[in-house]
Write a structure and sequence with these properties.
Elements lengths: L2 H7 L6 H9 L3 E3 L2 E2 L11 E6 L2 E7 L15 E3 L1
Antiparallel strand pairs: 1-2, 1-3, 3-4, 4-5
Helix pairs in contact: 1-2
Length: 79
Amino acid sequence: MRLDKYLKVSRIIKRRTVANEACDAGRVTVNGKVARASYDVKEGDLLTVTLGARELTVKVVSVQETVAKNDAANMYEIQ
């Protein structure tokens, strides 16, 4: 699954366009490297998202195309 879509489906970032813009601006890293929105997310990847003064680091637990709102937080673990 694409990185921008994963960020939206997991509800780390609310909208896919915002996720895409964050990737383009270099504010999203995967395993310590700046990643493009087209990066293919895999289980075990370590994502770091910087939005404003906040920095969120999560480990990808599962990759699913669709998920219920209540189950979205189960797709990652906060580090």
